[in-house]
Amino acid sequence: MSIRVLVVDDQPIARAGIAAMLDAENDIDVVGQSADGEDAVRDALALRPDVVVTDIRMPRLDGISATRRILAEFACAVVLITTFDDDEHLFDGIAAGASGFLLKDSGPDLLAAAVRSASRGDSLIDPAMTRALIEQRVAPARSDEVAHTPLPRQIALLEELSERERVVLDAVARGLSNGEIAAELWVSVPTVKSQLSSVLAKTGTRTRVQAAVFAYESGFMRPGS
Question: Could you tell me the pTM of the whole model?
Answer without folding.
Answer: 0.71
